[in-house]
Amino acid sequence: MTTHTPAYLRGAGGTRFGKHEGSGALDLMASAAQQALTSAGLARGDVDGLLCGYATTLPHLMLSTLFAERFSLHPTYAHSMQLGGATGAAMLMAARELVRSGRCRNVLVVAGENRLSGQSRDSSIQTLAQVGDADFEVPNGASVPAYYALMASEYMHRTGITSTDLAGFAVLMRENAIDHPDAHLRTPITVADVLASKPIATPLSLLDCCPISDGAMALVVSSEPGEQAAIRMRGAGQAHRHQHLTAMQDVMQCGASHAAAIALQEAGIATGDFDYLGIYDSFTITLVMLLEELGFAPRAEAAARLRHGDFARTGALPLNTHGGLLSYGHCGVAGGMAHVVEAWRQMSGVAGARQLARTPQHAFIHADGGVMSSHVSLALTRER
Length: 384
Description:
With 384 residues, the protein is an alpha/beta fold. 35% of the residues lie in helices and 18% in strands.
């Protein structure tokens, strides 16, 4: 039987999300990386592995080695990755494998960009439009919000969920973000505010969509745990069922449940054992669909669990206590990584005013890229 070295989330760090005038992608990444190393109790010379997520504002062909040069790192393994919103979780999964195999002892995983201040509105729209199929989707003028709106229409038709159901999740994310000093959006909102906000792509309105932000996040995956707590990466799984919306076979089975099944089997943890969730939420429909496909709510009943208080900070299954992409903000790869950084802080007992009354023992993380295209699940356990 093969014996693997345990892989731990040893440290984490990140910048505030919002607008960082004058700061480029490398500046933001360096700030997050230094915070992560400091929290891990490591020096730059201790890093022997480096994984970097892509940045639309810095499309360098060798971003990992460029960052290593600027941040004074000399890793024995370096890699850049590009998997849309699933990139951060996929990098953590890869870092786990590097540690488990003995290839590396301390892997720095970092991403960030100045997506809000570093590109124009037209450039942002053009970048997002490229998610679509070049032959069958892009020529029709659609962009990411439109693709998600089409998917939302089908899902809502088949399950009976309503725009009011979706709006409740936007409100919860904002309630969580209000208590986080680094969150992009902190103004209180109501369900009525969400429903009355500007239509973007029916049935999605402005407050059903995440904002575009500047920011960065970093985590350290190591063979030894940190001083705060031993947060072990117990399981990981991926699934890739389609790339484009027009190739999606079934809106009820996008691949999330397949990735989760692999992670849970590997971790030896059941869905009901988790007491914290970090679930990707680029749009309210993303969050609802993932919660239901992953099995954290029956079909069409995620909103009922929300109204019951299950996903609140005081509930049985706290969800995205930093505010998620919908309110903490979204700056590309780092936006999804923020879910893991928050999970690490909650599990380590260092979340400050946001710290849950019950320190989570098992956290489930899920990220998706594209239009529910690429899925990565992670299962984390606090061992001390």
